[in-house]
Amino acid sequence: MATTYYNAVLGRMVEKEPRKPRRVRVHLENNQYVLVPKYLASDMVGITEYGDLIVRSTDSTIPAGQYEGLTGCCGATAKGCDGYIGCRFCYREVDAMLGAPLRDSDIYLKVRAS
Ligand SMILES: [Zn+2]
């Protein structure tokens, strides 16, 4: 369903572009898949038993190559919120272990080898 908005430059209502898919499928070893932000897909290692994402870290807070846990909802890091550990993006409560580097034993399902 197309929506319109007022474009001040053109001085008229224009149709909003359909949203591009923000997420891509990453298949798991059990042949199910998770939807993850496209930029994370190549770093995906697997998921935790709570459906959170495990990626090979490429940023500076966790040494490169180690496993970093990102929230399944938004692919974001976890942070301390008001009395709980939450998703940095949407503030949903997430598993507290996402705040620390993850180990092989935290992998519940691995990404399927292609
Ligand atoms: Zn979230």
Please describe what this structure looks like.
- The protein is mostly beta strands.
- The protein has one domain.
- The protein has no helices and ten strands.
- The strands form four sheets. The protein has a four-stranded antiparallel sheet with strand order 7-6-5-10, with no helix packed on it.
- It is globular, with a radius of gyration of 18 Å.
- The N and C termini lie far apart (36 Å).
- Zinc ion (ZN) binds next to loops.
- The site of zinc ion has 8 residues, from loops.
Helix/strand structural class: mainly beta
The count of strands amounts to: 10
Number of structurally distinct domains: 1
User: Quick one: biggest sheet?
Assistant: 4 strands, antiparallel
Order of helices and strands: EEEEEEEEEE
Rg: 18 Å
Strand content: 25-35%
Shape: globular
Low-confidence stretches: none
Bound molecules: zinc ion
- What number is the mean pLDDT? 87
Q: Helix coverage percent of residues?
A: under 10%
